[in-house]
Design a protein that fits this description.
The protein is α+β, with helices and mostly antiparallel strands. The protein is built from 14 helices and 20 strands. The strands form five sheets. The chain has an eight-stranded antiparallel beta sheet with strand order 16-13-15-14-18-19-17-20. Strands 6-7-11-9-10 form a five-stranded antiparallel beta sheet. A three-stranded parallel beta sheet has the order 3-5-4, with helices on one face. Keywords: Oxidoreductase.
């Protein structure tokens, strides 16, 4: 008799009670879980730390929790590259690479996310020279719908490109090989200026430092700016602890969220009282500047837009958010990045801007997410695969020029829809058999 187990996302945005919940510690264990699901004709989804703000990983059939399948497999200093197990947290990987004198080319703010989860959803940091993390993938091992392991490399460019950002719809990632760079420090400079001034020279601002971020509270007209320059200069004394100021800001925002749910006008009045303001430029270790602990749970939405469309989208967002009568204590964040060629990458096609809104988990704030989504959709935005959104396949198909290429590969690797949950069916549609399916590429290696 099977006993169901409850599984929830980090933010409690989604939960499920899978019939089978396995936590494999080896690749063979992953393969066996998939093979068992195939024998019993169950849908199977893979999960990491549950940091998606939607039901991406949820299923009531078979769930594979990869968080015990972690650790670095190999480091190649000549390439340089690293091969890592899918359930490894980004922070663990960054720290391990730093000990080797290496780093990931770029990383987002959330160190607790798993490597597989980050690349599968198109996760990114910021910087016009830096594409999403998935673009740094050199090879993956993928457990397919029959429980066989495929090695996908750049010798199979289409298969690898599809697998890099695949939402878990092609199989379960086992190990990933990522390009690395020499370890670096970041010289970080904060500033502020009128939002309209930044938007007038947005393209220039976006390329003004190795990594840039804009933060804006919609009830005001001033934007905070953050510029990080790669450097070989040593870490400022206490520099690596500066990220905890951001953590303190998260705690303050969480407290304001509780106040704002009852008294909306309190948020703009109280936000400026936060005592942890900027204390000047500093230099810190690259991965410690990029990330910070996030103790407060929240909901978040993000859309990727062509870089040149970000200013008009933000200008449209201003009156839309101001008209709602409630404000999130979290700023609207804008980051930038290079394009990607993975068919389902939100950054597909060229330089990209990312517009993010975080809100407290109170239901009252969800109107803000719907407001932002409507504006971003009007301006050609593609929703982040791991964050809150209401888009379905009918909306999304027209936003990805290589949508049909991905669907053809999906039909090739998972013809029976083993990895197609209700959520995947909503955002990708059902598996469609192409007119002519190419011969399967990539060898089974079990």
């Amino acid at each position: 008799m099977n006993t169901r187990h409850r599984w929830r996302t980090w933010s409690n945005a989604a939960e499920c009670t899978p019939l089978q919940l396995t936590r494999p510690e080896t690749e063979d264990g992953i393969a066996e879980a998939v093979a068992r699901a195939a024998r019993e004709d169950l849908v199977l989804r893979a999960a990491g730390t549950g940091h998606s703000f939607n039901a991406l990983a949820a299923t009531d059939d078979a769930l594979v929790d990869l968080t015990r399948y972690r650790g670095v497999v190999a480091v190649d200093h000549d390439a340089p590259s690293v091969t890592v197990r899918a359930g490894t947290r980004l922070g663990e990987l960054a720290a391990a690479l730093h000990r080797e004198g290496l780093a990931l080319p770029n990383i987002g703010t959330l160190a607790e996310q798993t490597v597989a989860g980050a690349i599968s959803t198109g996760n990114h940091g910021t910087g016009l020279a830096h594409p999403p993390l998935a673009a740094e993938v050199l090879a993956v091992r993928l457990v397919d719908a029959e429980g066989e392991v495929r090695q996908l490399t750049r010798e199979d460019p289409e298969l690898l490109a599809c697998a890099r950002v695949s939402l878990g719809a092609l199989g379960v990632l086992s190990t990933i090989t990522l390009r690395c760079v020499p370890a670096y420090n970041l010289r970080t400079v904060s500033g502020s200026e009128p939002l309209d001034a930044v938007l007038e020279r947005f393209g220039q601002w976006a390329g003004s430092a190795d990594h840039v971020t804009l933060s804006w509270q919609p009830w005001g007209d001033t934007a905070g700016t953050l510029a990080c320059h790669r450097t070989t200069e040593p870490v400022t004394p206490g520099g690596d602890r500066r990220r905890y100021r951001t953590t303190a800001g998260e705690l303050w925002a969480g407290a304001l969220g509780l106040a704002g749910a009852g008294v909306p006008a309190a948020v703009p009045r109280l936000t400026g009282l936060f005592p942890g303001g900027d204390t000047g430029p500093y230099t810190g270790t690259g991965h410690r500047v990029h990330t910070f602990p996030q103790p407060v749970r929240f909901h978040a939405l993000e859309h990727a837009l062509p870089l040149e469309r970000v200013p008009e989208a933000l200008r449209a967002l201003r009156p839309a958010l101001r008209g709602r009568g409630i404000h999130s204590p979290y700023s609207v964040l804008v980051r930038v990045g290079a394009g990607d060629d993975a068919p389902l990458s939100p950054a597909y096609g060229g330089p990209t801007g990312y517009v993010n809104l975080t809100v407290p988990r109170s239901a009252r704030y969800r109107v803000l997410l719907r407001t932002v989504e409507a504006v971003m959709r009007e301006h050609g935005g593609r929703p982040h695969w791991g964050k809150a959104h209401t888009a379905d396949a009918a909306v999304l198909a027209g936003r990805y020029p290589r949508w049909d290429d991905f669907q053809r590969v999906r039909a090739q690797l998972d013809p029976k829809g083993r990895f197609t949950s209700d959520y995947i069916r909503r955002v990708l549609g059902p598996v469609r058999a192409p007119a002519a399916v190419p011969e399967a590429a990539g060898e089974g290696v079990r």
